[in-house]
Amino acid sequence: MAREFDQADLNEPSHRPSSLDEFIGQRGLCANLRVFVEAARTRGDALDHVLFHGPPGLGKTTLAQIVAREMGVGFCATSGPVIARPGDLAAILTNLKERDVLFIDEIHRLSKPVEEVLYPALDSRKLHLIVGKGPSARTLSIDLPPFTVIGATVRIDLPPFTLIGATTRSGLITNPLRERFGIPLRLLFYEVGELTEIVSRGARVLGVVLTVDGAREIARRSRGTPRVAGHLLRRVRDFAEVASDSAIDAHDADIALGRLGIDERGLDAMDRRYLSLIADNYGGGPVGVEAVAHTMNLTPDTLIDEVEPFLLRSELLIRTPRCRRLTVAGFDH
């Protein structure tokens, strides 16, 4: 399974944030999460189910790992597309220990049959599996704990556990599933100061001599996202090493980022192509995302998840459920 790259990936494994105190950014979220974790741990209960939602690369996976570590429990990670059948989910759930954390990335991509099996597991820690007959019969090749057979249904008791879901598309999560998360938490884009701290820490781990203004220049053009900051730090380091620079300052970072096609606002070639296409081909909009995606030879999901969030935050784009329209700043960029 592809793993989310966030601020943890700026560090070697032994230097990853291991607690909420070490995690940089998302201060309000972390403060509340700290209370919820401490309360559950004091009671000896499993933490309520958690939903992390927000743009990609902001630290959802790292926070899920930290929650498990601070709760002192096991951690199991998977993703929505991997859980293709109810039996796949059953195999995961029946291997959880008491109070373990199950992390499902891209949880909005769970199929309806899998979701329906998940509901009673979240509500009452029961796993209900229907044993069919004839052509519809299914064989479960999993080791089951003690279970009860009621008619054609196998009912399995599960230990208390915490589901942590992560999604970049919270609007695609069904209401029945959304309502089962007692702790919904939205991750926000990072401020430049927070990213500067993350980049500086990453540089120390990588053995890169980076000035404060150099770190800030990288942070300023990182789209508010630790994942992007990590990529840019490594590429700026490459340019500096080839140029035999002893220390990377803002000027060095600016030159390297310019060669990478990252402009002063942090926009890359794909962002600029997106804006230019809407401006030149559609007069600034309105235009549907499907039409733009087709012209750019990309999927609508790629534009919605990877391109549009930063353009919206930068007030270059207006998005409605049916169309996109450039702002004056977006038209002029």
TrEMBL record:
Would the keyword DNA-binding turn up in this protein's UniProt record?
A: yes
Q: Which Pfam families match?
A: AAA_lid_4 (PF17864), RuvB_N (PF05496), WHD_RuvB (PF05491)
| UniProt-listed InterPro entries | AAA+_ATPase, AAA_lid_4, DNA_helicase_Holl-junc_RuvB, P-loop_NTPase, RuvB-like_N, RuvB_wg_C, WH-like_DNA-bd_sf, WH_DNA-bd_sf
Its Gene Ontology biological processes? DNA recombination; DNA repair
Question: One GO MF term, please?
Answer: ATP binding
Pinpoint the AAA+ ATPase domain residues: 46-187
Keyword set for this entry? ATP-binding, Cytoplasm, DNA damage, DNA recombination, DNA repair, DNA-binding, Hydrolase, Nucleotide-binding
Q: Supply the name of the protein.
A: AAA+ ATPase domain-containing protein
